[in-house]
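Expect chain and fold; thus:
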Amino acid sequence: ETLVRNEVAYFCCVRQLLEEHPIQWDQEATERPGLFLAGDSHCLTGAWRQVQLRGETRVLVPLLSTGLKAWHMRDESTFYPKMQLLNSMKALPRGSQVVMAFGEIDCREGILVSVNRDRYKDIQEGIQVTVKIYVKMLLRLVRDYGFEVFVHPVAPVLNETREMVMLYNAILKTEVLSAAEKVPGSLHWLDFVHKLLTRSKTTAFGGTKSISNSLRHDLELDGTHMSPVYVSDLSDALASIP
């Protein structure tokens, strides 16, 4: 039942992407090396879109690892999505440039479930543990394969997890920038998540007003993923990397 549900969700997402956001090709860009976009299902929205990197138009080539959490990347894990990621990485030319987009599933279910089961004392500890696992994998890819890695922030799509996602991104940014000092020029944080949100006022029962961050309306897609419209913000972040 779970497999069928996931397959239907993927089918609906891909169909919506193709119908509402058809891909436009630039022949010159396709002749350049691909800029690989590795991720869970969130990599689908950027798949085959064009971005700017160091003055060149590049095509995002998707490398999908279905259901992969940062937690699965720990050394002792043999879970098949991790093996899919590693096999994808091994198949790339040495020195490839890769955008890594993981962590959303950890925020949506993994960390909360683990806190409820007393594996972590709180959400922040869960985030710190999984982020360190993730960053260790990023350094491994840089050192073992000579990759240049660009770390994509976790997409803040769901209202229910947005606060955790933003905390996750803040901790991930700190750890990535620290790790980048060990591999100069090979590991980068893409600092654009704040551009995906808009401030909104809400009125609760009793007239109490509050201000919160919401996903920009033009980035809404299927309730789980962002629209490919966001790729322009991703492109700007990539273009800012020296």
